Amino acid sequence: MDVLICPKCGRNDLLQKVSAVVASGTASLASTDLAARLARPAPPTEPVPEQSGSGWIAVAWLSGIFAVSSFGLFIFAASHTPADQVTASGVAPFALCIGIPTAITIAALSLAAKKRTRVAGVNDEAVGRWKTEREAWMKKCAIWDTLYVCLRDDLVFPEGDRQRAVASSNLRQLL
């Protein structure tokens, strides 16, 4: 097995694995800054399912409750009114109180269903993009796990490939 040495100074006394430098979190300000520069790549953000259409569902519930209670009030009033006193003008307000909320309920549920269908397509695309980004991130992490840093020269290089050495501020070039 080859002995690891810095490509610049040819020594190994201040050579450390990048993951160890990041994990150590030593107290000195320079080491903390170095650890931040050498940090593992951040994972891609997983898409969160959207709850679109829920506003329309709330409208549907409220208008449906209003329609049902109006119908119940209509039945109660009709059962307590003599048949000869029920007129078209007395029935019309109840019909409006039932008909309009019912129409609003149907429209709101239809809009909610359309919006949820449209969002599902967007989520499928976002999940596919996230999976692709996650695979790329995992490859970067595998490379990151092989990196070493010379603390003397602030030089980062992958194990077994000293020719690809870069300054710690340019670590992302190796990933």
Strand and helix layout:
Blueprint: E1 15-17, H1 18-24, H2 29-37, H3 54-79, H4 88-144, E2 147-150, E3 155-158, E4 166-167
Antiparallel strand pairs: 1-2, 2-3, 3-4
Helix pairs in contact: 1-2, 3-4
Descriptive account of the structure:
The protein has about 180 residues and is an alpha+beta fold. The protein folds into 2 domains: about 15-45 and about 145-175, no CATH class; about 55-140. About 55% of the residues lie in helices and about 5% in strands. The chain contains 4 helices and 4 strands, in the order E-H-H-H-H-E-E-E. It has a 4-stranded antiparallel β-sheet. The model has no long low-confidence stretch (mean pLDDT about 75).
Rounded to the nearest angstrom, the distance between the terminal CA atoms is 24 Å
User: Strands of the largest sheet, in order across it?
Assistant: 1-2-3-4
Total discrete domains:
2
Estimate the mean pLDDT confidence. Answer: 74
Shape field: rod-shaped
What's the helical proportion of residues?
55-70%
Q: Encode the helix/strand succession as letters.
A: EHHHHEEE
Radius of gyration: 34 Å
Contiguous uncertain segments of 5+ residues: none
The largest sheet, given as strand count, sense and whether it forms a barrel, is: 4 strands, antiparallel
The overall strand count is 4
Tally of helical runs: 4
The class by helix and strand makeup works out as alpha+beta
- Percent of residues in β-strands: 5-15%
